[in-house]
Design brief:
Layout (H helix, E strand, L loop, with lengths): L3 H30 L3 H27 L19 H28 L3 H31 L3 H11 L6
Helix pairs in contact: 1-2, 1-3, 2-5, 3-4
The structure holds hydroxy diiron-OXO moiety.
The site of hydroxy diiron-OXO moiety has 7 residues, from helix 1, helix 2 and helix 3.
Length: 164
């Protein structure tokens, strides 16, 4: 049986993951508007993966005979002033999500909920990768600065992101 407190916290996390998807779609829309189609493709793929994260928790809650209660998804920021700002916000967001996953893990330890601890290990590993990937792109964007040709090259490179 899924402890009530853990069930509630997992439901909040489902919303966080859908919000992540929504936020990355807002970033994709910004890039589309700037004709940076490679950056947009990368963000759309990121948004798609976030739906996968939400569904992973959704399915886990139902497998444990818990009840999924979908919560309202807030409107994401839609105003960005630069490519760099987008990736700064993306990194900030991933760090926030890492904090949420860590809180969830701490709660599952407190509640002696061993299956949830095992399920969350996937997310703990994933967050290391999420932060590192976004950080690497941010570093390159910072290096590029105002050099448009280099930005276009990076845009082309990011267009190659495969869905998987
Ligand atoms: Fe970006 O990892 Fe889920 O939220």
């Amino acid at each position: 049986m899924l402890p009530k407190k853990v069930e509630e916290a997992l439901n909040h996390q489902i919303r966080e993951e859908f919000y992540s998807s929504y936020l990355y779609l807002a970033m994709a829309a910004y890039f589309e508007d700037k004709s940076l189609n490679g950056f947009a493709t990368w963000m759309k793929e990121q948004a798609r993966e976030e739906v996968g994260h939400a569904m992973r928790i959704f399915n886990y809650v139902t497998d444990r005979r818990g009840r999924v209660i979908l919560e309202a998804i807030p409107q994401p920021t839609t105003n960005f002033s630069s490519v760099q700002e987008v990736f700064e916000k993306a990194l900030e967001h991933e760090q926030y999500i890492t904090g949420k996953i860590n809180e969830l893990y701490a709660l599952s330890v407190e509640e002696k909920d061993y299956p949830t601890q095992v399920m969350l290990q996937w997310f703990i590993t994933e967050q290391v990768e999420e932060e590192s990937t976004v950080e690497a792109i941010l570093e390159r964007v910072r290096l590029i600065g105002d050099h448009q040709p280099a930005l276009i090259l990076l845009d082309r490179e990011l267009a190659a992101r495969q869905s998987g």
